Amino acid sequence: MTVTTTARARNGPAFGRQRLPERFCNLDRLLAGMEARGLDGLVVTTPLNVFYLTSFNGIAHKADEPRPYTLILARREPEHPILVLADYYLTTPLHQPTWVKDVRPCRSVMSPMDLPPRPEDVDAHIPRSAAGIDWVEQARAAYRFDSGEQVRAAMRDLGIDRGRVGFDDEGFGRRLGLPEVEVANGYDPLMHARAVKTPAELALLARATSLNEEAIRRTVSRWEKGWTRQDLNHAYAVSAVELGGFVRDPGGLVVSHAVGDDPTLTVQSGLEDEEVAPGAHVMFDCHGTLDLYCWDGGKSWVVGGEPTPEGAKRLAATARVGEALVDAMRPGRRVSELHAMGREVYRKAGMADADGAFIFFHGLGLSHMDFEMHLPDGRPYRDWVLEENMVLPIHLFFPGGERERAWLEEVVVVGADGGRPLFSWGFEPL
User: Fold this and answer.
1) Backbone phi, psi, residue 244, to 5°
2) Which of 314, 290, 336, 325 is nearest to 411 (CA)?
3) Global pTM?
């Protein structure tokens, strides 16, 4: 597939945008998950799942707007997926290649409502430089005026206009009005695939984590006495964006900080504005994305000085728990076992109230879940079993006042010989 080339920015960010592989999804695992659930095909419309299966990242679309793209995949013909998309997105695959060669555009919101639709309307969205490219010419010939018609035609062509078809948005499947299709859950097979990362995905997550680590270091270096929480949030957002990342409204710092001797663990609203006082323990739990892959995590920062003796004890114990859990993150472990193991390490470190510690995990990838919620037989799946190349953040919080609490969040790749941390800075506080 021909792509355009551009000059590189002279003063671009350290983690500038890059072209991604044409295919980086775990397709074999997806097909196995579809077979286990008796699915003949998948129809995918949510932005992250479309990106996962196609490398297509469309600009400007918001999650609750009508879906301007749909990926149709047949289990028995997996090498011939079809991508239906709004006509104005036809140039995106010229810049970011995709392994999907059957691209079918449809009339979009940019089309004039005061003029009758014409087949040649699509030419307004095809640059002259793309003339003669096979997939573009095929796309021009496949242009249709109605997106629903285009999706139904693609399903017929792949033989999944009947049978059991998974939709990551089941409501979309029902609105298509296909009487011979059993609309089924497509969310879980996709999350089953996304749970185990391909080498390309691991590289993307490592890159995103490196950006987060550097953004936290920059934020700490910029701190000045008298700063408030909003100053800290703004400094982090600026640091992340300077480096090439994206931070979601209302902010990138997630965990909030109770003041005084309040030991509560809460999340931020984005409106907190108390002073970040010297000696306080700031808990960096930072979220953002790079190439749509999420970063997460951070650790404790003792603002402008050394911790108190009690604070140092809790921070040291939390570092020991983090180190032990990373080593234990091997295939076959259940998350509940890791919870119990972490609590026992806290006890051995002399923390009598270990039951009050927060120890929790979730997946990480294109979202902060990336785990199926239900097994193929429909049972809820909550106590996940680790598999090689899963990525999970470890969250550790030992409660205490603002000068005693301890926080550590490490991002870990599960491996046969133990977990591999994606942060480079170890387990001790900043």
Assistant:
1) 115, 5
2) 325
3) 0.96
Strands (E) across 148-266 are located at 163-167, 181-185
Query: Residue 94, SS3?
Result: helix
What separation in angstroms does the CA of 290 have from each of 82, 249, 255? 26, 15, 21
The domain boundary, picked from 194, 225, 247, lies at: 194
Claim to verify: residue 81 and residue 211 sit in the same structural domain: no
Evaluate whether residue 6 is within a structural domain: no
- 223 contacts: CB under 8 Å, gap ≥ 6: 232, 235, 276, 303, 304
Bond into 250 cis (ω within 30): yes
What are 389's two structure tokens? 């190349």
> Would you say residue 135 lies in a domain?
yes
Q: In this structure, are residues 122 and 143 in contact, taking their beta carbons and an 8 Å threshold? A: yes
CB neighbour burial string for 111-139, b if at least 16 within 10 angstroms, e if fewer: beeeeeeeeebbeebbeeebeebebbeeb
The answer on 288 and 187 residing in a single domain is: no
Task: Clarify whether residues 352 and 244 are in a common domain.
Answer: yes
CB count within 10 Å of CB 379 equals: 8
- pLDDT 10s digits, 165-213: 999 999 999 999 999 999 999 999 999 999 999 999 999 999 999 999 9
